[in-house]
Amino acid sequence: MLTIREYVRPQTLEEAYTLCQKKSSVVLGGMLWLRMQNSQVGTAIDLCELGLNHIEETPDDYVIGAMVSLRQLEQHPGLAALTQGAMAEAVKHIVGVQFRNLATVGGSLYGRFGFSDVLTLFLALDARVELYHAGMMSLADFIGMPRQQRDILVRVYLPRAPRRVVYLSQRNSATDFPTLTCAIARQNGQTCCVIGARPMRAMAFDDEKGLLAAGVNETSAAAFAKDLAARVPLGSNLRAGEEYRRLVCEALVRRGLVQMEGC
Amino acid sequence: MEIKLNLNGRAITAQADPDTLLLDFVRAQGCVSVKRGCDTANCGLCTVLLDGVPVLSCSVLAARADGHSVQTLEGLQSEAEEFVTFIADQGADQCGFCNPGFVMNTIALLRENPDPTDEEIRAYLAGNLCRCSGYDGQLRGIRAYLNSKKEQGGARDGAEK
């Protein structure tokens, strides 16, 4: 059962950061995962009054506040165009509309959850995160940071540079956690393939062997998928075994590439 | 702590603990249509509208709703009455336990998208679980309601001409 001794709505990021240095403090995102934990929270820090619930556009990036909901991501026309619909595809299987109206981008990424659809897609999109204390860094670097570090994720930056994007996931049943996620982005002939729900945190892979260098077609897509599925570190949990995940991985990567290129 | 919010059009001021859930808060205010189902943010039974947006009240702190507007089925009777008989006609509410959540989310759906396709209805209501009916009854009921509205609109247009 979750208990909270004090609830605070900081008026500045500095105030929020200072409060979150205590071990007993927790920054509230959508509170959906936190709610499931059996923990005693000293101070619950709600960022809801810091204006972080907007998606803004700069010439180079979409700037997504940490309190933006997954539903906002799903419905944003600019993000839909940037990702050719992959953004909505990545979040639409997450429980239901009511859940996605609560779940936040900040909560989804800060937790660096193994099962995260959002982490998988944002990694493929070359996202950068802005932390209040540690500053800007790539999402890939952030994933590697120790979880003990207490900071505030303020915004996420998605580059607007055009790229082909596709997102696929496999679930045992609708609205469940994914058994495997796959996001592929292709830009200037370079392919980045991210596999998540391994069941560990999402990992990015490049076309190191140049299997797609001559272009993506059914044959090269199958070769790349087979090679990637053989080398991606996978594991087992209650939802799926390692061997099953490896088969699903090969199928999703091949289908994703074929779908992306329309071949 | 003191919570001030607008509940179904009424200004409410009440004391709540920092970890009181909105679900328990609104029930304590007499809104017992809001039910605790799975308690794991999965079943949609506890759906309320927070500033007009459907959310799971089992996963929102009452403190977070402070200063905001909350609507439950108690405050949306006339809007619900328009279509619930169509759902009942299809036998979609067998035990009826999931019904308040379904109705709340259907209200949100029809406000956001007054003419949804079957696929859009299914997608919007995916977060509402029913263990009796298999969902087709709800879908048929909402479709029958929308068709009826269109027929009424057509008849009215015809009468006006």
Q: Which helices and strands, and how do they pair?
A:
The complex is a heterodimer of chains A (263) and B (161).
Chain A lengths: L2 E6 L4 H7 L5 E4 L11 E7 L8 E3 L3 E5 L4 H6 L1 H7 L2 H6 L5 H4 L4 H6 L6 H8 L3 E4 L3 E4 H6 L8 E7 L4 E8 L6 E10 L2 E7 L6 E4 L11 H14 L10 H20 L2
Parallel strand pairs in A: 1-3, 2-3
Antiparallel strand pairs in A: 4-5, 5-8, 6-7, 6-8, 9-10, 10-11, 11-12
Chain B lengths: L1 E6 L2 E6 L6 H7 L18 E4 L2 E4 L12 E3 L5 H13 L9 H14 L5 H7 L11 H25 L1
Parallel strand pairs in B: 1-5
Antiparallel strand pairs in B: 1-2, 3-4, 3-5
Structure description:
Chain A is α+β, with helices and mostly antiparallel strands and 263 residues long. Chain A has helices at residues 13-19, 70-75, 77-83, 86-91, 97-100, 105-110, 117-124, 139-144, 218-231, 242-261; strands at 3-8, 25-28, 40-46, 55-57, 61-65, 128-131, 135-138, 153-159, 164-171, 178-187, 190-196, 203-206. Chain A folds into 3 domains: 3-46, no CATH class; 55-159, 2-Layer Sandwich (Uridine Diphospho-n-acetylenolpyruvylglucosamine Reductase, domain 3), CATH 3.30.465.10; 164-261, CO dehydrogenase flavoprotein, C-terminal domain (Enolase-like, domain 1). In chain A, the strands form 3 sheets. In chain A, strands 4-5-8-6-7 form a 5-stranded antiparallel β-sheet. In chain A, helix 9 runs antiparallel to helix 10 (242-261). The N and C termini of chain A lie far apart (51 Å). The mean pLDDT of chain A is 95. Chain B is α+β, with helices and mostly antiparallel strands and 161 residues long. Chain B has 2 domains: 2-74, Ubiquitin-like (UB roll); 76-156, DNA polymerase, domain 1. Chain B is 41% helix and 14% strand. Chain B contains 5 helices and 5 strands; from the N terminus they run ββαβββαααα. Chain B has helices spanning 22-28, 77-89, 99-112, 118-124, 136-160; strands spanning 2-7, 10-15, 47-50, 53-56, 69-71. Chain B has a 5-stranded mixed β-sheet with strand order 2-1-5-3-4, with helices on one face. The termini of chain B are far apart. The interface between A and B is medium-sized, with 26 and 29 residues.
